[in-house]
């Protein structure tokens, strides 16, 4: 991720776009949710709550033209080490 990431406010996305971003995130290989297998709905709800509480942020990287969900502390420090959201 480049140093030029742009944070996307939740209210800037439609409900469908927000869900698509979250589903894309939780569907990625390597996203760890602990020992118990969780349904897609549970994973989406967990990430949405983290976004609503400000624990996670949606960011857009104009260099790669990609959207990601990152811990709030990483959103403030672009280019920092990757840390999974749980």
Largest β sheet strand count, sense and barrel closure: 3 strands, antiparallel
Query: What fraction of the residues are assigned to beta strands by DSSP?
Result: 15-25%
Total tally of structural domains: 1
CATH architecture: Orthogonal Bundle
Identify the overall geometry.
Answer: globular
Supply the CATH class.
Mainly Alpha
Q: Strand sequence of the main sheet, in spatial order? A: 1-2-3
- Mind telling me the CATH superfamily name? YehU-like
The end-to-end span amounts to 20 Å
Mean pLDDT: 82
Number of strands: 3
Helix content: 25-40%
* Strand and helix order: EHHEEH
CATH topology: the name is: Arc Repressor Mutant, subunit A
Determine the structural class based on helices, strands and strand pairing.
alpha+beta
**Total helical elements:** 3
Q: Unreliable stretches, pLDDT < 50, 5 or more residues?
A: 77-86
Rounded to an integer in angstroms, the radius of gyration calculated over CA atoms is 12 Å
Word description of this protein:
The longest helix has 13 residues, at 40-52. This protein is of the alpha+beta class. It is globular, with a radius of gyration of 12 Å. It has helices spanning 15-26, 40-52, 72-75; strands spanning 6-8, 56-61, 66-71. The model is unreliable at 77-86 (pLDDT under 50). Helices cover 34% and strands 17% of the residues. It has a single domain (6-75), classed as Arc Repressor Mutant, subunit A, CATH 1.10.10. β2 (56-61) and β3 (66-71) form a beta hairpin. A 3-stranded antiparallel sheet has the order 1-2-3.
């Amino acid at each position: 991720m480049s140093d030029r990431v742009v944070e996307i406010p939740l209210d800037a996305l439609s409900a469908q776009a927000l869900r698509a971003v979250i589903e894309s995130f939780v569907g990625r290989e390597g996203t760890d949710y602990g020992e118990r297998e969780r349904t897609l709905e549970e994973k989406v709800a967990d990430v949405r709550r983290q976004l609503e509480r400000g624990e996670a942020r949606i960011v857009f990287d104009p260099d790669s033209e990609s959207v990601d969900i990152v811990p709030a502390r990483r959103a403030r420090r672009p280019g920092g080490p990757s840390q999974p959201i749980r």
